[in-house]
Target: YncE family protein
Amino acid sequence: MVSRIALLLALPLAVACAPLAGGEDALAPPQKASVPGALFVAGKFGNTLSKVDLASGSVAITVDSCANPHELATSPDAAHVALACYGGQSVDVFRTSDLAKVTSIDLGDGARPHGIVWHANGDLYATAEGRRSIFWIHDPLGQADTFEYASGQDGTHMLAVAPNGNHAWTTNLGSRTVSLIDLKTRRAPRSVEVGEEPEGIWLSDDGETLWVSARKSDAAFKLDPQTLAVRERIATGRFPLRITLRPQGDYAVTSDLADGALSVIDTASGEVVRTIVVSSVEEAMERTQVTILFSPDGERIYVAETTANTIAEVDFASGRVLRRLPGKGGGDGIAIIE
Model:
């Protein structure tokens, strides 16, 4: 099973459970919903960027993007969305209103940017997997000064950034490590092994707990952000690719690709309190559930089903799949504005 998962993720480059909604054969017809805002979807197989209107559930705009686009991040004022061009070496920025590209920031030969954060300070931060580093992009819509920091690790894939912008943390798939990178003093990074193939990463809003999901360990980890000591290991569903925290901070959620489900972890107790079924286990490999994202109010969670070209919208309280939105072109990276 894992070999097929790895193949799908590499393309195109060389249980209080919810009612089962995965049996739908095709995209559910768009439904009217009292949901404001828009969802942005990076189509990594189609090399596209789409804007989905959440009220109607339909695609408003689709534009061509760079090769193999992956993660997305919206600007603090919601006016722009940044795209990590995993098949190339740039971070591209688009207007959220009409998806017009406003700038392309070159990170150098072989960069292959993947994880991306648009910080409240207005700066962008991105991993450069091909260069074993991360970039701090100061004033991305203006001078766009870039500063590179070596992780010294293989597969520097996803990242989190401290609220004050002084530190960043990365997951490094190839080295099986998590790294702490000092963005101000440029001290040598600190790296520790955390499970098998750590990928998902999220820093609590107070900066006191670093959450990591290790996909081949079927586990989530609570780490001390400064020492990287593991405070707790939590068994999750199978192959947890991503981890995110609810905006309220009360729950962490992992995206368990092999189960087509979400593990919901009480952040205080560290216990998995329920599992939300997004699709059946039999359908999990056909849908390839990857990125997850909460709505700003924490009431809904969006689940990218990459090979099904859908984004499942899930009511977090009930665990019910409300509808499946278009995920054109192999939707993977997603971002939201209201």
Observations:
- The helical segments are 2-10, 281-287.
- The chain has a mean pLDDT of 92.
- The first strand starts at residue 38 and ends at 43.
